[in-house]
Amino acid sequence: QVQLVESGGGLVQAGDSLRLSCTVSGFTLDYYGVSWFRQAPGKEREHLTCIDERGYADPMKDRFIISRDIAKNTVYLQMNNLNPEDTANYSCAAVAGLCITAWIGQDYRGKGTLVTVSS
Questions:
Q1: Do 91 and 40 form a contact (C-beta atoms < 8 A)?
Q2: For the stretch 54-77, what's the b/e string if a residue is b when 16 or more beta carbons lie within 10 angstroms of its beta carbon?
Q3: Nearest residue to 93 (alpha-carbon basis) of 14, 16, 39
Q4: What is the CB-side half-sphere exposure of residue 10 using CA atoms within 13 A?
Q5: How far apart are CA 111 and CA 103, in angstroms?
Q6: Of 4, 27, 48, 50, which is least surrounded by CB within 10 A?
Q7: Which of 15, 16, 31 minimizes the C-alpha distance to 70?
Q8: How many whole angstroms separate alpha carbon 81 and alpha carbon 3?
Q9: What is residue 55's predicted lDDT score, i.e. its pLDDT?
Q10: How far apart are the C-alpha atoms of 21 and 42, rounded to whole Å?
């Protein structure tokens, strides 16, 4: 059974850092592109960054850094210097092969973890 489970969200203050995890099961990361998305209240879902078999990482901003540990079947999103505008539900998603940025095109999707940044 394929699953993507996000963790690491919570309530933080502006300027803090947070690392999110996306742990997958039912497939291996070697041949999949994994993206991080976020959706703030009342806004459309936004693609942040992605990493795939090339090690390619499409950075949204310098503050957000994606990495992966294949042995642990986990993809991470390091978020630095957070601000209230970063408040959102953060989700990961996977597609076979190389990265794509469209949510609808992903093969598998997680439910997300909520990040709230207070000022």
A1: no
A2: eeeeeebeeebbbebeeeebbbbb
A3: 39
A4: 10
A5: 12
A6: 27
A7: 31
A8: 30
A9: 77
A10: 24
The per-residue pLDDT of the chain, averaged, comes to 94
What is the per-residue pLDDT across 36-81, written as a single tens digit (0 to 9) for each?
A: 999 999 999 999 999 998 876 766 667 999 999 999 999 999 999 9
- What tokens appear for 27 in the block? 């497939």
Two tokens at 68? 């992966």
Of 86, 80, 75, 76, nearest to 119 by C-alpha is 86
Give pLDDT, residue 20: 98
- SS3 string, the chain, reads CCEEEEECCEEEECCCCEEEEEEEECCCHHHEEEEEEEECCCCCCEEEEEECCCCCECCCCCCEEEEEEHHHCEEEEEECCCCHHHCEEEEEEEEECCCCCCHHHCCEECCCEEEEEEC
